[in-house]
Design brief:
Blueprint (H helix, E strand, L loop, with lengths): L2 H8 L3 E3 L2 E3 L30 E4 L3 E7 L2 E7 L6 E5 L4 E8 L5 E6 L5 E4 L8 E10 L8 E7 L12
Antiparallel strand pairs: 1-2, 3-6, 4-5, 6-11, 7-10, 8-9, 8-11
C-alpha cells in the first residue's frame, strides 16, 4: 500500500483492490504563523565553517548555485550527525532536498526532537529548502542543532545534506 493510500485509510477512507475511496473532509484554514521580526538573519554558517562538527561518514563537495560556489556535505550513513553551535534567538537549517534523501531528526536545547522529511517529492533536487526552523529562543542560550539522518532509500548512495 502506498503512503498516500495508507494516509487515506488512516483518515477514514477505504481501499478495495486498485480503487481508493477517500473520506470527504470539510476544509479548515491552516493556523497562521507570522514571520514578523524573523526575516533578518544575523549570519549564515556554511558547512565549511569550523563551528560545524560531523560524526560518521560525510563526503565534502562544492557546487555552483546561481553563480555562487557553495560547500556541500552529504552522508549515506544512517545515524551520521551534523552539529552546529550558534548564539541567537532563532535558527533555520537549510540545504538541498535530493531525490535520494531521507528523514532528519533535529534536537535543539532541551526541546523534543523534530523530524523533517527531506525528500523533494519528485525526481529532481530542490536547490535550497528549509529543513528545520525554531524561533523565540532565549537570547542567553547557546543552542546546538543535532541532526541524525535516516536514509529514505536502502541504497548505499542515498544522501542527505545539512
Amino acid at each position: 500500500m502506498t503512503r498516500a493510500a495508507k494516509l487515506a485509510v488512516r483518515n477514514g477512507g477505504k481501499q478495495n483492490g486498485a480503487a481508493l475511496a477517500v473520506r470527504m473532509q470539510s476544509p479548515r484554514a491552516a493556523r497562521f504563523e507570522e514571520w514578523k521580526g524573523r526575516s533578518r538573519p544575523m549570519e549564515r554558517i556554511s558547512v565549511s565553517n569550523a563551528r560545524w562538527t560531523f560524526r560518521g561518514q560525510w563526503e565534502q563537495d562544492r557546487e555552483t548555485i546561481r553563480s555562487a560556489e557553495r560547500s556541500l556535505r552529504t552522508s549515506a550513513e544512517k545515524g551520521a550527525e551534523a552539529i552546529v553551535a550558534f548564539e541567537g534567538t532563532g535558527v533555520v537549517v537549510s540545504g538541498p532536498f535530493l531525490p535520494t534523501c531521507g528523514k532528519a531528526e533535529f534536537l535543539l536545547d532541551n526541546r523534543p526532537p523534530k523530524v523533517s522529511d527531506c525528500y523533494p517529492g519528485e525526481d529532481r533536487r530542490k536547490v535550497n529548502d528549509s529543513m528545520f526552523h525554531a524561533f523565540g529562543l532565549a537570547k542567553a542560550s547557546t543552542p546546538y542543532v543535532f541532526a541524525s539522518w535516516a536514509s529514505r532509500s536502502s541504497s548505499p548512495r542515498a544522501r542527505i545534506s545539512p
